[in-house]
Fold each of these.
Amino acid sequence: MAYRLLVVDDDKDTADTIGNRLAKEGYEVAVSYDGEDALAKVGEFNPDVVILDLMLPKLNGFDVLKVVRERYKEKWRPVIIVSARTELEALRTCYALEADHYITKPFSIDDLLRGIKIVISLIPQRRKGE
């Protein structure tokens, strides 16, 4: 079974590049370019992992993360933040909203792949209590 990943980034080239690489790695991938569409795709595509930028049109990444945690409690899905925001307050806010990992831009795809493998390996533990 291929894990399903949702890539959310307002930069179309970045989102598509990440999505294409993850698809080559064997993941089933959906891509979104704004916060509202991202939430719709969480409901429709039902991803196992969400890779989320913070600076998005329509609904920012903090709000998307908050809604994912509130609306989709029946299935834990790891959220990896990938953002150019490097200030400590952004990191603290994301972890307070239960982000699972935080990667700053620019980043290497290998760092992202490592992060994805780590959070996927933790899914059974997170879902035990459901």
Amino acid sequence: MRRNLGGSLAALVAGVLVTAGVGAQTTTVVGSNVLVSSCTQLTVTSRFTGDDNGNGSTRVEYNTSSSWPGTTACSAVPGPSPRQCLVAGLTPAQSYWVRVTFSDPDGVSGPNPEVLGPFALSACGADADPPTVLVLSPAEGAVIGGTDRVKLQVWDEGGLAASPITWWVDSGALSTAATLNPDYACGAS
């Protein structure tokens, strides 16, 4: 599946993870990274292995210093790896630290909580930053066929009306059909 959103997208880079086994359920092994995705936003991507029964979650906090607790951006992100959290509405030209905490009743291996930073945001100018796209489903590596629902989260500080979403699957026809979630103020900064 390819996505064209009117600008280039920054690639999210993941850390290397190691698997550790404990009985029937394996210990969750974690690693995260942070992308400065605009002058007011960070994108946190947390990759993990070992949560075979899917009962874990990820919490993301941010602060202007490496002191905690901070402000919660995402309180309990469930689901398969990778888990992603947008930290939006930040102050331009400011540096931020991020703390990622993994919870799994079966155990967590690796740095937990994981503190990353500082990440310096640039000053905002005209909306020169490309939109941020998160693939929420299907999960990475999933095999799909027939009729499947693809769920994306698209955010642009300048609003989406200025750059309509154009998408296609494989070599199919271009489409601009999209359903906006009314629970979010789409395009608001």
Amino acid sequence: MRHVFSGPGAADKYERMGKWICAAIYAQNKALDWCETRGVKLTKAAAEGVNSAGGFLVPPELAQAIIDVRDYYGAFRRRARLVPMGSDIVSIDRRIGGAATFFNAENAAISETNPNWDKIDLSAKKMGSLVRLPSELEEDALPDIVDAVANEIGFAFAQTEDDCAFNGDGTSKYGGMTGCLQWANDGNHAKMKVTAASGHNTYLTLDSTDLGSLIASVKASAVANAAWFCSQTAFGQTFCRLAGTGGGYMFNAPVDGIDTPHYLGFPVILTQKLPLGTGSLTTTGMLVFGDMYRAAALGQRRSFAVARSPDRYLDQDQIAIRVTQRIHAVIHDVGDNSNAGSLAVLFAP
């Protein structure tokens, strides 16, 4: 579990956010008075319906701590284009073609061309996480409970966002979102789908040729900012194995403020939402390569709101807290059957 506050002022932040949790989640009158006298606001969020008058908006310090955890663990969020949404539905521009140049004779008119643009629609989807906390809280446990709340919520949201971005199939299970593996395997984006060599259906059998074919399957403009996206199983059994046997090289360097391993010069971004199995993965998407910023957008409608219920887990002497956010993940630059896009997916044969 990560400590969500550090450095100068950390103790004060832990106290303020701990008191806010005591007031908003544990409904302690003493903590309510403390927050009121010190300017820690308990702002209601309309229609967040578990508390009698709606849930509470998470204060900036705790919201940022949750965001930091979410950003740390979320592979998709780390690399996608983040788009603030001022309303429930937002359209953003996408460049699909550029201007052209021509050779012209003297005194001849120059042919006109224009860049081509279309629209990507983002529609905010509400997602939530239900977290259990002990019903009693000791004063000296405030830092621990703040860390627990921020880590549990941040990690849960990161995992759901990754699941939608990589595995989404357009159904309600994924909030109607479609992920990379589904796009690559739908029969309309053949350039996005790369199949490993015959017999290479486990992470222990993939070789440098398979990975090279994956790199070769994205368009040239995607290479400069590209990354590998894989599970820790793929990282250990493929990338570390190949580097250890001389098939590649690895080093660590900061990416997005996080110390990150690199293979063949590209960062390796880990996610638990790509396959973790050590056995055969026949016909399954194994890992992803490309420029997620060019390929995807993550719309963000609003920050977190938290609501509590002392009754949900009454028999277990626990309090339920529900935290919600509204987002929309769209994978959009995936090419087609003839043209490469900004992402490619390696499938087991």
